[in-house]
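Data follows
____________
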Amino acid sequence: MPTLLLGVSGGISAHRALDLTSRLRQRGWEVRVVMTEHATRFVTPLAFQALSHRPVRVDDYDGSPEGAFGHIDDARAADVVAIVPATANVLAKLSLGLGDDALTTTMLASRAPMLVAPAMNTVMWEHPTVQEHLTNLRRRGVEVVVPQAAGVLACGEVGAGKLATVDDLEAAVVRLFERTHDLAGRRILVTAGGTREALDPVRYLGNRSSGKMGQAIAREAARRGAQVTLVSTTPHPAAPGLEVVSVESALEMHAAVMKLAATTDVLVMTAAVADYRPEQVSEQKRKKSGEPWGLTLVPNPDILAELGASRKPGQWIVGFAAETEHILDHARAKLARKRADCIVANDVSLPGLGFGSDDNAVTMVFDDGTDLPLGPSSKDALARALWDAWLPRLPVVAAP
C-alpha cells in the first residue's frame, strides 16, 4: 500500500486537501497528514483524522511519547510527499532548508519524491522571489503542480494563483509514485563532465562541460528506482542509490566504462570526452620560455563507438552531441556512425544554455527516424523529460 505524507499549510484552499485525502484513501493509499498551525485555522485536524484514520500532527513538541520522533517516522514511511496547498512562506522555507515547525522538519527528514501545489494571490505568485524559490526547488527534483492559469481568488482578484484541481492533484501524486518505480530493476551507467588531458602536472587540455546534465540524468534515474553508476570528472552532489566513479582523463573514463558496460542495461554517455590527448606529458611543470610550444596530439579511444560495436543483447545506448552548427545533421550522422539508439543534440553556441548553465534545450534523434525537441528548461526538469521519452523505448527487463 503506497503511503503519502501530506503537508497542509495555511490557505483558503486547504479544504481541497481533504478531498485529496479521501480520493487516495479510496485508492487504497495510506495518508499521513502534518499541518502548520495556520492551516488549522482553515481546516481542523479532526477532519483529516476522520478521513485518513490516523492521528494528525501539528506540533512536534506535544509531549506524547511519539512526539519527539514522529516527524522522523512519518518521513521514513512516505513513498511520496505532497504539500497541498503550499503557501509562499512554506515554499521559501523548503527552498532555504528551514525547519521551524512540524511540517518543515518532517519534509527535511524525508528522502521521498516531493511535489508542491502552490496557491496564493496572483501578485504573490508572480513575485520574483517566489519564482526563484520554485526554480530552486525544481532544480532539486521537486515537482511543482502549478496553480490554475486563471480563476477568481479569495481576495476577489482574477488571475493565476488558484490551487490546481483535485483531479490534477490526484493524478500528479499517483504519477509521481509510479515514476519512482518505473526504472526499478535497471542497471544504468551515466558519464558526466569534460575530461582533462594532462600537459604537465599543472596544466591540461579540457573543455567547458560542467557535468550538470549528466548529474541530473543520473539523479533522476536513481530517484526512479534504478541502480545507477555515475562515471564523472566533476564534483558530484550526494544522491541516494547513486554510486560514483571519479575519473579525470579520457583514458581513465574509457577504462571505467568498459569495465562496467558488460553488467549495464542502459548507457547514457553525456560526458564531453576529449577527442585527442597530448602525445607527451611533461613530468615536471614546463617553464615559460618565450618560445612557441608545439604539441602533438594523438587520438583518444572512441568510447561511444566501442560501446555500439560491442553491445550485448538488449543493451540500450544514448550518446550526446554538443554542436555549434548543423545540429541535427551532425546528430544523425553520429547516430549512424556510433551505432547508438539515440543521440541527444544541443546547440552549445546559444547563450544561457548548455555548457556551464543550469538550463538546456535539446533534440533527441532516434534510430527509427524520430526527432523529439525538449526544453528550454532546467537540466533537472529536462532529465525527467528525457527519461519519460526513453522509458517506452527501453528493452523489457524482468520485474525486480
In short: The two ends are 17 Å apart (CA to CA). The chain has two domains: 3-179, 187-393. The chain has a mean pLDDT of 90.
